[in-house]
Description:
- Helices cover 22% and strands 40% of the residues.
- It is built from seven helices and 25 strands.
- The N and C termini lie far apart (107 Å).
- Mean pLDDT is 90; it is low at 1-28.
Amino acid sequence: MKKIYYLLFLLTVLMTLPSCTSEVDNVFDKSSAVRIEEAISADKDILKSASNGWLMEYYGDAKYGGYNMLCKFNADNTVTVKNEVFGADTAYTSHFKLEQSQGVVLSFDEYNPLFHFFSDPANPAGVGDNGKGMYGDFEFRVLSASADSVVLLGKKHNSKIVMTPLAKDVKWDDYLNKLDETAKKMSSKKYAIVIDGTSIPVSQSYRTLTFTDPKTGNDVTMTYIQTPTGFKLREPVTYSGKTITGFTYSDDDSWLDPADKSIKLVPVTPTITEQFVGNYWFIAYSKLGAFGQQYWSVVKSNADALGETFIYGIFGTYGNEGTEGTHFGLTFDSGNYWGTFGFKYTIVSADEIKMEYAGTNYGNAAWYAANANYNYCLPPFGYANAARTFKLTTDNLKAPTYVKLTDESDPTNVIVLSASVVQGVFSN
């Protein structure tokens, strides 16, 4: 009896097989190889269809924020790129390809300095962690592609990137120059966010704004990209029942959220003393008063005796993310070596500061002090147990190009420090 049931079951299965096979064939009437080639071809046509190129909102690690890339995909499988980091005057063309790798992958497979700036382990600007850079990608999975937008996902770091076509009448250089102009207008050392009349201090790191919820103590982070009209958040941020989407620039320094006018960002100008201790400034021998020059002349003579060039002299908070960290004081670069003489300070008022050498040395400072008397750099700024109080002045408190230190106890001790790089302390 069991044998009869088995034969009947086998017959039923055999009779249904042709029907199932036919249904599968109808669904997959093309091989996987053909289907992927068609997908690659379709995506390539879409990339090339934007006659004025694409605006790519590029993100690496979220903490660095977003950057605008302009990309024109050409018929010869090259892509021409400009971006806001290098500015309107710099363009670079390199190869790209689309290939199959668990879906369609767009790869910028030939080195392009404008593009790989974000993915290089060490970019020219020194932005990012040592050996990892900004955690950017140059290979992307194509999540969706249409004439209106292309959505990509970084293959290595999973950052989502969106491209939209630029209007035909938009000139690339004008667009990048406008970005730069608005970015400069919105640049500030400090900000405050005002929500329903409550003002909360905001700090900035690269293109990330952060404030602390006064009720919970939790940080609220707003990652943004610059636009011609202001800041656009990567994702809306909800706080205190409000949704923050970005901020539109206006000349009155009251930048409203375009979606909710009860939210605004305002720039806060720090005092010159705060800016002095929070940044670093470059020293030039020619900008030292008579008191300072007599000491620094000794340093020059000893550097010459060593056969070294005293390249940089820097005062303020300076350093890196390595083992030495950042320190407030006087940093020098002599030949192939550097050192920092650490200082301590007391802020006396909004434009007065008291400073003295703290006796702490970093890098090769102790060696140069013992063997080349580089500690002669220090007395004009305040030597150990001989503090000096300075009056600070500048040209533009919102965007200072220099800070002038006038010793309140010695009018011959005047030091003018530059915000821009001075290379060759004794040649300037």
